């Protein structure tokens, strides 16, 4: 007897669905390792999106669940195992994020502090306002118990300085202001508190008094040998290459950007050349490639060595050692670590006589970074670095069948074509991420890269290697002199391109689901085998469609009550031309607006003097009072639907208004208001973020 089964019209039998899924997974054999970092990223992203801090029970459940799924995968057969293992990796990603967050836990200031600050210098850079900035550890605060003292603080230096020369290991003392790391400037915005938590940074502030030495640098050198070497090399390079070129050379060679003028950095960003500042795959590849070629050439000059020793493997080992030193010297940034892992895989493959460059090495680099530092997933460096690398490896892999055509090109033209292809591919892959994080697109970026990147490979990095080789005999100036002219050209290109009309297009900030959907679509299109890969294109189109529909809040209120922004016909109008500048500039950038704070404050929208400002947002009246003079005008009634002040209130005014003063804003964080058909919708940073370790 034959038994038949029927199914509802338009449905797929369960067995058929399972078979299709199994066939699709079997088609990925040999490439499943590429999905390991992607699954980890899902778990990490899910953990960070939680609004309530998980407890021990939740972590135990994740661990047990991951273990059970791995075991089930081993029993499920080749067709279904990847599904079980993928879900297990998602749970492992969440566990990694939680473990990392707890491992870096350190005290965070819970109040505003003013008084004596003592600490050891462990980093020197520049603030957003282009002032020197010191990061200190071994912190001592007056009348603050050690158990409540942050592990690290960061202090910007204003006022008259110059009494000391800041150097790594120097213990300094100063009188300054410190406050807890601030939260997002608007709900859903960049959360500096979270970044500070993973850097163990428990207080940020400034000083207007002189910074003095409390103990010599020799007493604080422990653990800072590499950092001291980095700063010594940076100072030496800048002493021999004057001006902006010297500052750029120091940034390229050591990762020290403290001498880079803000205007120069902006020019490089507007020309899409800022990637030259980050020690990344370009720098690591050029440096190790130059060392590899130099070592092979040197050994080829000695017949006995060339004929008897594996010169290719020796050169690879030497390049690997130099790459490791370069990684340590640069401070181990995300882009540098990724580049070193990639180069290491390539050079080890040379040692083992295996294929050097593949998507597997990219996946390995991503996995290493996500395991060690899961928080880097959300940074522009991680996203842009791996987007560019993945796209480049996939693109040049697709061009392999056309290698013969490429070989027919004239020798002088082949490198130019390779640079053109790599710049176009990398630029297209990173453009959405750059636009999302920095709210700008460099329209002439391809032109600037074509004019600059070849010189980096042909002159700048080889000259840097020559300078290092000639340093022991006192001739490093020869390499640095050659390097200078290449850097001068790059700075010239950046300045000219950034000055062109329409060099930069400002872009509105995308919604929270745009980048995840875009990234998933990008990866599915590049990595999946079978017809399902084209669904990745649909996902990318959908993400870009969502981006075009992004809207911005009608009203924004800073977390200090110091500035209010109301959307008007000419863009966002600000209540003040100065004050709370970081919040104001961030709002404008997220609006896709290139104006500065003073320009936005001059727009139609707010009326009144500088102490009392009024604006109309739809049917909503907004009143902003600043300073004691503004607060004195409050009276007994709100006088508006929304009342904002940066002064503490002793008595609440009469009337059914929404009131935001420093005390309430300290609890809620910044506020956004969207005006819809059913009335205004208020959202605070606290509501969006929830209660996490960095946002209790």
TrEMBL record:
| Matches recorded under InterPro entries | ComEC_N (IPR004477), Competence_DNA_uptake (IPR052159), DUF4131 (IPR025405)
Q: Which residues form the signal peptide?
A: none
> Membrane topology per the record?
Multi-pass membrane protein
Q: Which Pfam families match?
A: Competence, DUF4131
Q: Where is the ComEC/Rec2-related protein domain?
A: 252-530
Going by the UniProt record, its keywords in alphabetical order are:
Cell membrane, Membrane, Transmembrane, Transmembrane helix
- GO cellular component terms listed in the entry, alphabetical order: plasma membrane
Q: What does the UniProt entry say about where the protein is found?
A: Cell membrane
Q: Which domain of life is it from?
A: Bacteria
Q: Where are the transmembrane segments?
A: 32-50, 56-73, 80-99, 276-302, 314-329, 359-378, 384-400, 412-435, 455-482, 513-530
**All copies of domain DUF4131, residue ranges:** 60-209
List the NCBIfam families.
ComEC_N-term
- Provide the protein name: Competence protein ComEC
Source organism (scientific name): Tropicimonas isoalkanivorans
